[in-house]
């Protein structure tokens, strides 16, 4: 016996769009697109018409002209995520969050007090539906990888349990794109080699897979195809970085517009640092040009900081340096990541220098936003301009 199927992968269905349909009953059963310039989320009614996440808004509306396009409401999505994760943690103390809308849960050892893993999954889905009002799909398996594949196959709003004795029966007939790490490029390469299913990849020798796909990728994907995934649910990981980004569509953007978006992003990231008593060592500016090529620019501090004014000053310097390239190529996305995170109490005390009293200003703004909402206070440069958020602050890989 290779162990029990005790790992749950819980994944909210079309999360942003589902929150919009929950909060606006008139949208239920209708195709919904979140985000205008670039699709951030699409309801299953819109997905059935070919709309996909990260698709351009114009193309999405051509595919689905009767879709309802709504602006993103990041505060609502964040609140819903917190409610769902509270249910996860009430289900088991062993929760590994993957993103704002999905997590792994280890429920082994709970059989006496909570029932079988399948019974636990059934109750979890019901609680999320009743208490938060959202559909969620769950896969249950022996490993994280298989649980994630099972939840994807079960969508929308489903539950699949993959018992150890039927793992091969479940996995091997699936399209090779179901493997964790196979995107469009790798999928096309595998198809070109005549490999269309997971089973066909598993039939190769490991050395052959490494030669065809590269040593690291080939070894990783071949191991998954042969049901090798030793990673346990990890509840100890700390964020190595946090980041947020804004999709901009395809129209030209001025420096002033980009500065507004940059300010919004950095304001929120700085607040998140202070909420978690963290500091960062490096600011990374992330750009996607009009031709969809990506670029990053970064600058590190000698002493880590959580001061919004300092973070914004560095981010603005990086943006200014990138403007000639932006003006020449256009821009479709701007984002910021704060990396090299550490505990605030690990930073040596600063000298008693005013620095325009930035720490006091940060504290006052944080307090106001906690009490009256994230949009209650804005910088003067943002007045009369779009305050929308396209993506939440999410953990990135360490």
UniProtKB/TrEMBL annotation:
**So where does Mg(2+) get bound?**
11, 101
> What detail does the entry give on cofactor binding?
Binds 2 magnesium ions per subunit.
Keyword Transferase listed:
yes
Q: What is its EC number?
A: 2.7.7.7
Tell me where in or outside the cell this protein is found.
Answer: Cytoplasm
Q: Which enzyme type, at the first EC level?
A: transferase
For this protein, the parts annotated as crossing the membrane are none
Q: Does the keyword DNA damage apply?
A: yes
An example Pfam family from this entry, by short name, is: IMS
Q: Which cofactor does it need?
A: Mg(2+)
Annotated active site: 102
- Name the protein family: Belongs to the DNA polymerase type-Y family.
On subunit structure and binding partners, the annotation says: Monomer.
Question: What does the UniProt function comment say about this protein?
Answer: Poorly processive, error-prone DNA polymerase involved in untargeted mutagenesis. Copies undamaged DNA at stalled replication forks, which arise in vivo from mismatched or misaligned primer ends. These misaligned primers can be extended by PolIV. Exhibits no 3'-5' exonuclease (proofreading) activity. May be involved in translesional synthesis, in conjunction with the beta clamp from PolIII.
Q: What is this protein identified as?
A: DNA polymerase IV
Task: Point out the gene that encodes the protein.
Answer: dinB_2
């Amino acid at each position: 016996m290779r162990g029990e199927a005790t790992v749950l992968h819980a994944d909210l269905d079309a999360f942003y769009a589902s929150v919009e349909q929950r909060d606006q009953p008139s949208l239920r059963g209708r195709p919904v697109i979140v985000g205008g310039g670039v699709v951030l989320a699409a309801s299953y009614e819109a997905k059935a018409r070919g709309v996909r996440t990260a698709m351009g808004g114009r193309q999405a509306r051509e595919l689905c002209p009767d879709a309802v396009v709504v602006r993103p409401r990041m505060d609502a999505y964040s609140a819903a995520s917190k409610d769902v994760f509270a249910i996860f943690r009430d289900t088991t103390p062993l929760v590994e969050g993957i993103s704002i809308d999905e997590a792994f849960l280890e429920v082994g050892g709970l059989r006496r007090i909570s029932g079988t893993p399948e019974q636990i999954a059934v109750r979890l889905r019901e609680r999320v539906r009743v208490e938060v009002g959202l559909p969620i799909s769950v896969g249950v398996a022996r490993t994280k990888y298989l649980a994630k594949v099972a939840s994807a196959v079960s969508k929308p709003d489903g539950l699949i349990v993959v018992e150890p004795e039927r793992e091969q029966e479940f996995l091997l007939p699936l399209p090779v794109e179901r493997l964790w790490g196979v995107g469009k490029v790798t999928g096309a390469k595998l198809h070109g080699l005549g490999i269309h299913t997971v089973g066909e990849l598993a039939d190769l020798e490991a050395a052959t897979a490494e030669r065809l796909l590269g040593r690291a990728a080939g070894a990783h994907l071949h191991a998954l195809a042969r049901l090798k995934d030793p990673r346990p649910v990890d509840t100890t990981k700390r964020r190595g970085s946090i980041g947020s980004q804004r999709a901009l569509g395809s129209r030209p953007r001025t420096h002033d517009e980009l500065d507004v978006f940059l300010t919004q992003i950095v304001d929120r990231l700085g607040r998140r640092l202070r909420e978690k008593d963290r500091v960062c060592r490096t600011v990374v500016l992330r750009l996607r040009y009009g031709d969809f090529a990506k670029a990053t620019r970064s600058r590190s501090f000698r002493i880590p900081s959580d001061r919004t004014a300092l973070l914004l000053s560095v981010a603005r310097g990086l943006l200014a340096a990138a403007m000639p390239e932006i003006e020449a190529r256009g821009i479709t996305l701007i984002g910021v990541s704060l990396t090299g995170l550490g505990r605030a109490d690990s930073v040596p005390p600063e000298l008693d220098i005013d620095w325009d009293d930035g720490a006091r200003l940060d504290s006052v703004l944080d307090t106001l936003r906690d009490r009256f909402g994230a949009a209650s206070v804005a910088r003067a440069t943002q007045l009369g301009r779009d305050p929308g958020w396209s993506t939440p602050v999410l953990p990135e890989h360490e």
